[in-house]
Design brief:
The longest helix has 19 residues. With 279 residues, the protein is an alpha+beta fold. The structure holds flavin-adenine dinucleotide.
């Protein structure tokens, strides 16, 4: 494992906000997890940081990264075990090389596989759990366990993994043959067109309430373009908050609260954060 002390954590969040973390540990082999973590308190697993807003004060936490766990194993019969640290788009490219279909609709999501599974991330009517057979986790007793998908609770952007504070170590997929390259290219292009990728952001700030789109509710509440400090509701995609370079943690949190208030007043609907806020 690699242990870094007093780490500038803004480098590890896609929002480019974050203070000094007490410790950042890069796990190099999954069996290190148990030894490393059992004596630690205040652990936070950081993936690609594409959904995580970090406080810019002192962060009294041990951040753990599985980024070095990236192994892909072919198990036969189109089953593939993948370690959680892999960048999700590298995995999509791998399915392309192997002619597997199943992940195309999610292509372009910039997270790690572990983050995507933790969030049950999804797009265009698909979710990461759709093609999963099993998930290997480190449980609260620091034991590695493999759970079948049928044994796990998951729903829209919510999983048992969050509630139980498990760590995703690897994931076994079962694919079909027939990768759809055109769909991947189409969706990657669409993301470039619709998302403010030129500025630091965390993707969708709010979950879509059942039957509604948060982006539309935000426009109707007159909040698109509103700016607090360096943080702004994107003009390109109103469910995104962008950092103009000098945004503070408080700017983003205040903007989140302002949006929630305005939407509640306008439509009576309570928005819930999709982003993870680490205080
Ligand atoms: C431009 C842009 C577009 C996006 N589009 C989408 C989209 O279409 N659909 C979508 O669902 N999301 C989208 N997102 C959000 C984000 O990419 C996903 O939620 C992604 O799955 C987060 O992965 P991550 O590795 O970056 O997680 P992080 O932000 O690092 O972490 C998110 C949460 O997951 C936990 N976590 C990370 N790794 C593990 C692990 N191995 N075990 C246990 N917990 C872990 C963290 O502790 C944290 O609570 C987008 C983000 C951006 C910036």
């Amino acid at each position: 494992m690699i242990v870094l002390k007093d780490v500038e954590m803004k480098e590890y969040s896609n929002m480019k906000i974050g203070g000094i973390g007490k410790e950042l540990i890069f796990i190099e082999e999954k069996n290190e997890l148990n030894t490393v973590l059992k004596d630690k308190e205040n652990i936070f697993v950081i993936g690609n940081g594409t959904n995580t807003l970090l406080n810019d004060g002192k962060l009294d936490k041990t951040f753990v990264s599985l980024k070095k766990l990236q192994k892909i194993e072919e198990l036969g019969d189109n089953r593939v075990r993948v370690e959680a640290g892999i960048d999700f788009n590298e995995l999509v490219d791998y399915t392309g090389e192997m002619d597997y279909t199943g992940l195309e609709n999610l292509s372009g999501i910039p997270g790690s596989l572990g983050g995507l599974v933790y969030m049950n991330g999804g797009a265009y009517g698909a979710e990461i759990f759709d093609n999963i057979k099993e998930v290997e986790i480190l449980d609260n007793q620091f034991q590695l366990r493999t759970l079948k998908k049928e044994e796990m609770f998951f729903t829209y952007r919510k999983t048992e993994i969050q509630e139980k504070k498990w760590i995703v170590v690897s994931v076994t997929f079962k694919f079909q043959k027939g990768f759809d390259k055109d769909r991947v290219e189409e969706l990657r292009g669409k993301r470039e067109g619709n998302h403010p990728l030129n500025l630091p952001n965390l993707g969708s700030t709010f979950k879509n309430p059942e039957g509604y789109f948060s982006a539309k509710l935000i426009i109707e509440a007159g909040m698109q373009g509103v700016q607090i400090g360096g943080a702004q509701i994107s003009m390109k995609h109103p469910n995104f908050i962008v950092n103009h370079g000098d945004a503070k943690f408080e700017d983003v949190v205040n903007l989140v609260n302002e949006v929630k208030k305005a939407v509640k007043e306008k439509s009576g609907i309570e928005l819930k954060e999709e982003i993870i806020i680490v205080k």
